[in-house]
Amino acid sequence: MTAPLLDVAGLSVRFGGLQAVDGVSFEVGRNEIVGLIGPNGAGKTTIFNTLCGVVNASAGRIVFADRDMTGLAPELVAQLGIARTFQNVRLFGELSLRENVMMGAFRAGRCGLFASMLRLGVHRRLERIAAARADDWLQRLGLGSYADMPATALPFGLQRVAEIARAMASEPALVLLDEPAAGLNEVEKYQLAHILRDIVRETACSVLLVEHNMPLVMGLVDRVVVLDFGRKIADGLPDEVARCPAVVEAYLGA
Amino acid sequence: MDFVTVAQTVFSSLANGALYAFIGLGFGLVSRSTGIINFAQGDLAMLGAILTGVLARAGVPVGVSAAIAVVACAAIAGAFYLLGLRPARRATIAQSVLITIGFSILIRGTVTTIWSAEPIPVPSFTGSHPLNVFGVSVLPQELWLIATLAVVSIATAGFFQRTVMGLALRAGASNPLGAAFVGIDARRLGLYAFVAAGLLGGLGGAVWAPISLAQVDIGLGLGLKGFTAAALGGFSTTYGPIVGGLVLGLAEGFGAGFISSAYQDAITFGLLLAVLLVRPQGLLGTLPRSAGDDKPEEILSTTVSPTRFTRADGVRLAVGIVVLVILGQVLNGVWLTTAIFAEITAIVVMGLVLLTGYCGQLSLGQGAFMMIGAYTSGYLTVKQGWPALPALALGVVLAALTALALGRMIFRLRGYYLSMASLGLLMIALTFARELSQITGGPNGLPGIPPFAIGGMSFFADRQFYYVGLVVSLVVLVLGLSITRSRFGRALLAIRSSESAARSCAVDVVALKTRSFAFSAAVASAAGSLYVHYLGIANPTPFGLDATIAQLTALTLGGLLSLWGAYVGSAVVVALPAFISWVGGSSATQVVAGLQYLIFGLVLICVVLIQTNEHGGRFLVRLRSLGRVRRTAPELRPS
């Protein structure tokens, strides 16, 4: 058994007097979809932000692909191969859809002001890679015909898919999705689940999903981690977890 | 220093510091409730002083004059908010700051045009004979100033801590949307904040005017001092600007006493830079705790900027080169000279397109980098016998390195810090250019700089130099186009739309901004070198704040994201003074200067307004359909 892709150990986050996350440990394996769920205020978003490097942990360790990434800045986290999407979609308004997805491939190589300005070979190579990946993912996710539109002119549901395309264009080992079903209608949710399943099947990528929508999570994930008041209360297969008394109590109230 | 000297210095410094505190309080108030920096704050104080002086000269009792002046300042500031800032709803911080800079120039231009730049003496409120307190000479007016500040600061503190309106202002600043949901109209709060800031500025100016003279030129300097006071003490604190103002006054007083009054500006702005770098929240302030940017980003653009070379770029480049080459053959005399200055300005503005347009960072100190180029070229060619080209190259490298060092520190902070830091840098550079006379020749300048030459070819005639400027500006243009049409430019546009999303794509925001800053500094330095080779003399005057204002106006006119626009904007800005004096004759130089500022100010405000108002894109359509039914979006208002 190899080490898990993402290993979160004893993670705690404190905001002033508020212990938002309290000693949470969980793992995400390779090519696995894991759901992170819990009632409002359970600490899901805080954990998500800590993984992205937006919030600093006050204790604990985050190890990704055998590298300690605790406390890394967001751009360095992305550089390691962790892509993310935003709950309130954040596409680049001044770029076309294709260029938005090309931005995902930014981490494919280093190329600074000089190399870009003087059009050195490395710039041409990286642009080719970015364009190829963008076209590939736009095709795969059915957005090909919108490629040259301003990204923010797309309907909301497609913008969400476009964000997933941007994340995938970075060829990540792990994608973090922040409430991807929020604001989608039933059809779109169904399509989203389909897309995520295909991605995990066709690439070597893992997915960590923070989500409110229980049916979506339970039908999609391999494993689910349940939080309540900043602590982990369950971790296992969706069926097992759904029967777990602590989870039922947290969701239904006692 | 004996006791009396120390006491005298302390007292005089505190009186100066009190004025800075007034202006700093205005900065703090506006920044707390609207989140923007009002660059016109110093000009409001200047206006208060001038109006008091003008009314008193007309025979109105000085106390009444001061009262009228204060009310007028408050009304003007309020009107500016309603007409200038409130309609610009989609403005970024940089654009809002540009609008307030326009306001600042507008006040300056109006005052100069109406009352000229002559200093106006203002009578004291109660007697002008100094009192002698234990050997320390005290002007009654200084006591008035300090007492007014004490009253105002108690009132301000009470207002923020004890009243619902004060609480609402603080709430609106910390979270406008949340405040709107509980029934606070953030935009009305902005109006109140500007009126109060006008009141504070006008009051400080009016009470201070009898100590000194009311003069239009003091506005910008006072604004900078007031800003430094607020930054020193902390913008977001109640007493910060007051403490900062007094500390600044003491630092200046003792700096002048112990070191040299010539370096007073360098001391002030050195202090500002040090505070920005070491303790950006100010002496009394605390840094906001939130780590991410969770404010919704609202750049909803319907047009996308190209990020690779297009056929249109090629056509524009070909046509542009042909037009510019022909212009060099057609233009003559003063218009040829004007075109050369326009080329040099355009080079600087192209750097600003990248820095301000693409990165959203407003630099007010490109003059500092121009001076690095100017004096490197001047010193090396005159005193060391270097050829022109290596000297220019060395200047470019020095400027870029300076920008890299400064940028690395400044861009960790978000917001308007670069504006202030670059302004501080400019002031320090100006001071050194004036004072280090063995290298720079002091205020008289460094004469005898040879014409620009490459190898044995010397470009002496105006027409030859036009083509030198054209080649250099075209090189900068092509490099700029190449940057904006690359993955680097795409990343800059990404940062502009959403910094957090850009970082999630592994974009190192600090590094990209720093490099863009270095590029803008490098080209500004090249422009500075060309400038002194053309004039044959290097002196500080052409690189000061007037140049900054001209560059920003050109940038705004030409379009923040348009490299070609740099030529157009610069041509207008450089030709305008020539045009006004051509129309008006050489007799009215004061009016020329005044009108020039007035027009620049109006242009800045109007152009940014058109760009940032939600109806801006359809501005012309609206003009045509004037008088028909106007539709407005529903607004959040307390019921």
Assign an overall shape of chain B.
globular
Number of helices of chain B: 25
Strand arrangement, major sheet of chain A: 6-7-8-3-9-10
Percent of residues in β-strands of chain A: 15-25%
Calculate the terminal CA-CA distance of chain A, rounded to whole Å. Answer: 40 Å
Into which percent range does the helicity of residues of chain B fall? Answer: over 70%
Our Rg estimate of chain A from Cα atoms comes to: 19 Å
Looking at CATH, which topology of the largest domain in chain B would you report?
Answer: ABC transporter involved in vitamin B12 uptake, BtuC
What does the largest sheet of chain B look like? Answer: 2 strands, antiparallel
Low-confidence stretches of chain A: none
Tell me the major beta sheet of chain A.
Answer: 6 strands, mixed
Please specify the SSE layout and strand pairing.
The complex is a heterodimer of chains A (254) and B (639).
Chain A: E1 6-15, E2 18-28, E3 33-37, H1 44-52, E4 59-64, E5 67-68, H2 74-80, E6 82-84, H3 97-104, H4 113-117, H5 121-140, H6 156-168, E7 174-178, H7 186-202, E8 206-210, H8 214-220, E9 223-228, E10 231-236, H9 238-243, H10 245-252
Chain B: H1 3-34, H2 41-57, H3 62-85, H4 93-115, E1 131-133, E2 136-138, H5 140-162, H6 164-174, H7 176-181, H8 186-208, H9 218-233, H10 240-258, H11 264-278, H12 311-330, H13 333-358, H14 366-383, H15 388-410, H16 417-435, H17 437-440, E3 446-447, E4 453-454, E5 457-458, H18 462-484, H19 487-497, H20 499-504, H21 509-535, E6 537-538, H22 545-558, H23 563-584, H24 589-612, H25 619-624
Antiparallel strand pairs in B: 1-2, 3-6, 4-5
Helix pairs in contact in B: 1-5, 1-6, 1-8, 1-9, 1-10, 2-3, 2-4, 2-8, 2-9, 3-8, 4-24, 5-6, 5-8, 6-8, 9-10, 9-11, 10-11, 11-16, 12-18, 13-18, 13-21, 13-22, 13-23, 14-15, 14-16, 14-21, 15-21, 18-21, 22-23, 22-24, 23-24
